[in-house]
Amino acid sequence: MHNQDQALIFELSTPGRIGYSLPEMDVPEADLNGLLPEGYLRVDEPELPEVSELDIMRHYTALSRRNHGVDSGFYPLGSCTMKYNPKINENVARFNGFAHVHPLQDESSVQGALELLYDLQEHLIEITGMDEVTLQPAAGAHGEWTGLMMIRAYHEANGDLKRTKVIVPDSAHGTNPASATVAGLETITVKSNENGLVDLEDLRRVVGEDTAALMLTNPNTLGLFEENILEMAEIVHEAGGKLYYDGANLNAVLSKARPGDMGFDVVHLNLHKTFTGPHGGGGPGSGPVGVKADLIPFLPKPVIAKRGEEYVLDYDRPQSIGRVKPYYGNFGINVRAYTYIRSMGPDGLKAVTEYAVLNANYMMRRLAEYYDLPFDRHCKHEFVLSGRRQKKLGVRTLDIAKRLLDFGYHPPTIYFPLNVEECIMIEPTETESKETLDSFVDIMIQIAKEAEENPEVVQEAPHTTVVGRLDETTAARKPVLKYQKA
């Protein structure tokens, strides 16, 4: 039986207890008969829990303590960039002039909001080395699809209908081939070499007259910088294809290198990652897309433009792929990103990269003695380890992740990328202190030693959480989605 602090709200229910009070109605009660079809009106009172205000407050507070987020603990998810969200961003996003505007207001009454969006576009153009940016896409994968649709439209406008294939590395984010498929294109995999980088000879083999684009991130998902990117761009461009930049890892090169200077034609950015907007649980997000000049005509409409001193939504785009998001993107996340960029400034954004890379390399070197290091070279903002050594002792990477829960840590990304056996991908971000990094590393070392000396304690983890080890296959295929009293 749960104790009072952890009890489910239905188990606390006692007839007659009330946790709320409403003022007396000062209008006649509505007669709903005839207004709704028969069968849609409730006949019996709903069976809701009857609890006091104190009980319900304790219930939801207890639930909140079971959640894990960047405000409550270290979140080393590789590739997800779960870094701290500065609270000044939240304050600015809540300004009345931003929080209370309506998307159907006349443009003349929202000039401040349009100016912010236009200025954000200009900042992102400078940061990425692109020629124009749209803020419409609602998240990274949505940005990927938007960028690929523009590339497809570009080829079709040139009568180049045979270009239907997108090349993706074997270390790519899973959203890359998925976005290509949704955009009506096919995917071809290019192999990584022994250094974890795109194999140039294999790229030359797969590129051809049917190539629409090469899609990759730099640094790649292994946390390694694609040092041959200019040669890769030349190979693809000579074949008539375009280069697409997955901006998931821009955190590693911010203000140090620009995708546009690497030869990329299209780039999407994850504002909810690199630029500190909150994310997780499916949203919110923002995935702006930047393009080089020859793709500008295909940008989603409307495009935010400046005419004299006035900011307008420009719908006169005959070659546009059309609107990709109702209204104009996730405005609140765009406000947060703009606040972050303006408050950090050029020097601050450069420091983001320097500390992100420093933190990742520090952790990688401390852990290399205890876990296999597939690519023994300097990483960028994230790095991958392999649990092959522990697997031989009967401890899987999944077990290591579960054991971390006993110490209050959210596990890193596991089993991704797929081309590393028993993969553990760690991204500390630039926001964490050395003390936090050391604490996490110490626990990882302890778990490695437990795998050697007492593997059962890892195999049966977690031990201290409210819910123990689940049958994850059954949980995924037969989830329990409603409360059932035991």
Features:
486 residues, alpha/beta, Aspartate Aminotransferase, domain 2, Aspartate Aminotransferase, domain 1, 3 domains, 3-stranded antiparallel β-sheet, 15 helices, 35% helix
User: What number of structural domains do the residues give?
Assistant: 3
> Oligomeric state of the chains?
single chain
Distance between the termini: 10 Å
* Largest sheet composition: 7 strands, mixed
Give helix and strand order, one letter per element, not per position: HHHHEHEHEHEHEHEEEEHEHHEEHHH
The geometry reads as globular
**CATH topology type of the largest domain:** Aspartate Aminotransferase, domain 2
Spell out the blueprint of helices and strands.
Layout: H1 53-66, H2 87-93, H3 96-99, H4 111-128, E1 132-134, H5 140-157, E2 165-169, H6 175-182, E3 186-190, H7 200-206, E4 211-216, H8 229-238, E5 242-247, H9 259-262, E6 266-269, E7 289-291, E8 303-307, E9 310-314, H10 331-367, E10 383-386, H11 388-391, H12 397-405, E11 413-414, E12 423-426, H13 434-453, H14 455-459, H15 472-477
Parallel strand pairs: 2-3, 2-4, 4-5, 5-6
Antiparallel strand pairs: 1-7, 6-7, 8-9, 10-12, 11-12
Summarize the model shown.
With 486 residues, the chain is of the alpha/beta class. It has three domains: 1-66, no CATH class; 87-343, Type I PLP-dependent aspartate aminotransferase-like (Major domain) (Aspartate Aminotransferase, domain 2); 352-476, Aspartate Aminotransferase, domain 1. Helix content is 35%, strand content 11%.
